[in-house]
Design brief:
Length: 263
């Protein structure tokens, strides 16, 4: 592939590094999202080898709820990623617009997210960076994990959003700098579910990061009255301090709250 193969259209948004454009492959007319990264940026971020690894992982993934990476190419100054175009854009913009989702809509998204995580875990890929900002919506409104994994271990840098993963989605074991495994994605699924239903993440403490860390480590969870008992039950089964006690993904798919809206 080369840039000449594409008609490049409007910017779609800014990814972590680089910008994404609507583009059409000239021969087929196929619409894609073309992400353009500057090698200079990558070099200073020392992430070119992470990028290569992410590209390696993502190019082998095929799942309806994981955004496809169709291919990539580069020229003297830039790297180009040919990504699937998600027809309904960024999920977090919907969340901001509606401030919170209905239980029906949340249950559909959580079921789709669970399916994608089951697929990833079977391939021994830990996502590590689940949050609304990384989720896109396909043309039929289906959820698509848009960003890939978190190449670097989330450094607990003081800023709200570490280089990888926002603070809000970190599980206790990561906040406490202990070892972690794929069960970090179960915790993040619980945080995501809470944020869909309530509109804000469960342990957010606008006063300081330290306060947020504390709330995470103590699992200081308060679920508002308007959240149904079944939904609250699933949230509590995922947001467990002990990773081994978190509800496994196949059990999430069989939870009454999920079955109620995904029959
Ligand atoms: C392989 C590895 C390096 C990671 C690959 N993933 C990324 O680079 C993460 N990423 C995905 C995007 C992205 C952003 C927006 C879109 C869109 C999209 N569709 C839209 C519809 C309406 C309004 C905005 C839209 N953005 N489709 N596909 C996208 C893909 C940006 N960064």
């Amino acid at each position: 592939w080369s840039l000449e193969d594409f008609d490049v259209g409007r910017p779609l948004g800014k990814g972590k590094f680089g910008r994404v454009y609507l583009a059409r492959e000239k021969r087929s007319g196929y619409i894609v999202a073309l992400k353009i990264l500057f090698k200079s940026e990558l070099a200073e971020g020392r992430i070119e080898k992470q990028l290569r690894r992410e590209i390696e992982i993502q190019s082998h993934l095929r799942h309806p709820n994981i955004l496809r990476l169709y291919g990539y190419f580069y020229d003297a100054k830039r790297v180009y990623l040919i990504l699937e175009y998600a027809g309904k854009g960024e999920l977090y913009k919907q969340l901001k617009k509606y401030s919170r989702f209905t239980e029906k809509r949340s249950a559909k998204y959580i079921a789709q997210m669970t399916g994608a995580l089951l697929y990833l875990h079977k391939k021994h890929v830990i996502h590590r960076d689940i949050k609304p900002e990384n989720l896109l919506l396909g043309v039929k409104g289906e959820l698509k994990i848009g960003d890939f994994g978190c190449p670097l271990k989330p450094t607990l840098s003081p800023s709200r959003t570490t280089l990888c993963g926002t603070l809000d989605y970190l599980p206790p074991e990561m906040v406490e700098g202990r070892d972690h495994n794929e069960k970090v994605d179960l915790w993040a699924l619980g945080v995501l579910m809470y944020e869909f239903l309530v509109g804000v993440p469960p342990f957010e403490d606008p006063s300081s990061n330290r306060a947020t860390y504390k709330r995470i480590a103590q699992v200081d969870l308060r679920i508002p009255e308007f959240v149904s008992a079944e939904a609250a039950d699933l949230i509590r089964r995922l947001l467990r301090h002990n990773p081994a006690e978190r509800l496994p993904l196949d059990h999430v798919l069989r939870h009454p709250w999920i079955l109620k809206f995904n029959s």
